[in-house]
Amino acid sequence: MSAVLIIGASSAIGSALAKHYLQLGEQVVWLSRFAADFTDPKLCIIKAPDLNGQDEWALHQDFFSSVINTLQQHQVSVIFNCIGWLHQGGELKLLPEKSLSQSSALLLGKTFLLNLELPVLYLQGLWPYVTTTPQLRYLQLSAKVGSISDNQLGGWYSYRSAKAALNQWIKTASIELKRSNKTAALVSLHPGTTDSLLSAPFQRNLPQGQLRTTAQTAGYLAAVAQQLHSEQSGLLLNWDGKVLSF
Question: Which SUPFAM superfamilies is this protein grouped with (predicted)?
Answer without folding.
Answer: NAD(P)-binding Rossmann-fold domains
